[in-house]
């Protein structure tokens, strides 16, 4: 179980800054001073009265009054001591016990029982806090188990996708190359229709190869725990542009960029991220020559990147759908593709602890935004 460090307690304000015990000491000192003053005044006055030589009757009354006052003072003293003991043992000590127990729980020992048996109010409070603790802990355990189960089944799925796509490659390669050989070797002996069938078969096999390669890339993110380090995102962008140089040149596209910061991540995956987004920006172009801008700004302890283009844009209602695997908005003969690019991008960004989304306010064209963690200690 993960344990968060115990945050410092909130500082009390105003008169509440003084702990209850100190309030009692203060009041106790005041009561003691009053008590001593009372005793001194009574003694002084009775000495003065005796010095006046009162009649025997009056002297008898005075000594009875003295005795009564001594009894009253003794009672007050006894009550005071009783009060101090009560507050000390019935209130302050149980509060201390409860505080220590709560501190233990807050410090990470979530199975520690919270219980004080007196006074009644604190006993009730502690039992409520304890049942709250027990319920939160059991809900948390269920959530942890479910997360663990989810992680496990996700891992299995990824493993399955990887093995399936990896093992499918070989027979597929065979199908594609032998159909091609069939065409080359026996092409002249076949009629037009047979050649068309072979062409469809080759085309299908090639498309499947593309799909399988993309699927492999997709299943590799996170499964192959790519190394994380300080990556210059500008260098990742350079590499992506290099890989896309032919595409960019063909489309007469212009790619501009802000100065890009270092981030904490995996260089290969960040290159894939830039490459897929820029490839889309160039592919889904409008009539005008494509213009793509890669921007960056700071957002708290993350960098927020953007890739905006002047292409055909995405209708806001498809803003979520385009990130699903194999989901495309256009027929393949108009804009070729497998529909994995954005799903892969989102997976890469999420694997890095960020988020990727389509900016609805992008104006013309499409703007994708994503966040990536700053290099530790920065900012
Ligand atoms: N820059 C963009 N401009 C317009 N539409 C886009 C852009 N990027 C992605 N899309 C839409 O999102 C869909 C999914 O993109 P993606 O997953 O990369 O698949 P693919 O590029 O193979 O079609 C695309 O088919 C397209 O409809
Ligand atoms: Mg794409």
TrEMBL record:
Subcellular location: Cell membrane
KW Nucleotide-binding (keyword) present: no
Pfam family, one: HATPase_c
Recorded catalytic activity of this chain's protein: ATP + protein L-histidine = ADP + protein N-phospho-L-histidine
Annotated EC: 2.7.13.3
Domain Histidine kinase: 163-376
HAMP domain mapped to chain residues: 89-141
Keywords from the named record: Kinase, Membrane, Phosphoprotein, Transferase, Transmembrane, Transmembrane helix, Two-component regulatory system
Keyword Transmembrane helix on entry: yes
GO cellular component terms, A-Z: plasma membrane
Protein name, entry field: histidine kinase
């Amino acid at each position: 179980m993960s344990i968060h460090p115990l945050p410092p307690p909130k500082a009390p304000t105003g008169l509440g800054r003084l702990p209850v015990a100190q309030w009692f000491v203060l009041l106790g000192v005041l009561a003691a001073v009053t008590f001593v003053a009372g005793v001194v005044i009574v003694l002084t006055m009775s000495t003065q009265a005796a010095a006046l030589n009162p009649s025997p009757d009056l002297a008898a009354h005075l000594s009875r009054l003295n005795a009564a006052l001594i009894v009253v003072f003794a009672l007050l003293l006894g009550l005071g001591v009783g009060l101090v003991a009560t507050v000390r043992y019935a209130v302050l000590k149980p509060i201390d016990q409860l505080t220590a127990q709560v501190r233990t729980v807050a410090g990470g020992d979530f199975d520690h029982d919270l219980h004080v048996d007196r006074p009644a109010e604190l006993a009730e409070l502690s039992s409520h806090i304890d049942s709250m603790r027990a319920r939160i802990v059991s809900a948390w355990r269920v959530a942890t188990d479910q997360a663990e189960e989810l992680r496990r089944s996700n891992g299995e799925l990824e493993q399955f996708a990887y093995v399936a796509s990896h093992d499918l490659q070989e027979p597929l390669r065979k199908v594609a190359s032998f159909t091609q050989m069939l065409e080359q070797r026996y092409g002249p002996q076949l009629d037009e229709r047979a050649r068309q069938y072979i062409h469809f078969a080759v085309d299908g096999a090639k498309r499947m190869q593309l799909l399988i390669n993309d699927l492999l890339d997709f299943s590799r993110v996170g499964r192959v725990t790519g190394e994380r380090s300080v990556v210059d995102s500008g260098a990742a962008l350079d590499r992506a542009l290099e890989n896309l140089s032919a595409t960019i040149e063909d489309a007469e596209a212009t790619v501009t960029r802000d100065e890009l910061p270092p981030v904490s991540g995996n260089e290969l995956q960040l290159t894939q991220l830039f490459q897929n987004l820029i490839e889309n920006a160039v592919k889904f172009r409008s009539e005008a020559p494509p213009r793509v801008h890669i921007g960056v700004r700071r957002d708290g302890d993350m960098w927020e990147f953007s890739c905006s283009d002047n292409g055909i844009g995405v209708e806001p209602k498809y803003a979520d759908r385009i990130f699903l695997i194999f989901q495309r908005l256009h027929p393949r003969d108009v804009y070729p593709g497998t529909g994995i690019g954005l799903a892969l991008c989102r997976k890469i960004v999420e694997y890095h602890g960020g988020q990727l989304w389509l900016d609805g306010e992008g104006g013309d064209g499409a703007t994708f935004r994503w966040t990536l963690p700053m290099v530790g200690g920065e900012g």
